[in-house]
Amino acid sequence: MTTKVLIPKTGMGTTEGEIAKWLKADGDHVTEGEVIVEIEMAKAVEEVTAPATGVLRILLGEGKSAEVYTEIAVIEEPMG
Questions:
Q1: Is 80 a residue whose pLDDT tops 70?
Q2: Domain-by-domain residue ranges, the chain?
Q3: What pTM value is reported for the model?
Q4: For residue 78, how many other CB atoms are within 10 A of its CB?
């Protein structure tokens, strides 16, 4: 099973975010609740935590921008 990692909506006027820094690399094991990426949004940096435990697969690289709720990575959860 995979879990999506999305750009969060942080305020009424927030429409997009830019990947400032991935704190984990593609293929790294992550634990639910751990901070995995920093997203620059409307003059602030938002830390996004892993919504599940598993292997991180990054879909959107650093310096790239996307609209809120865009899928920026997936976490592949172990079977069983």
A1: no
A2: 2-76
A3: 0.91
A4: 9
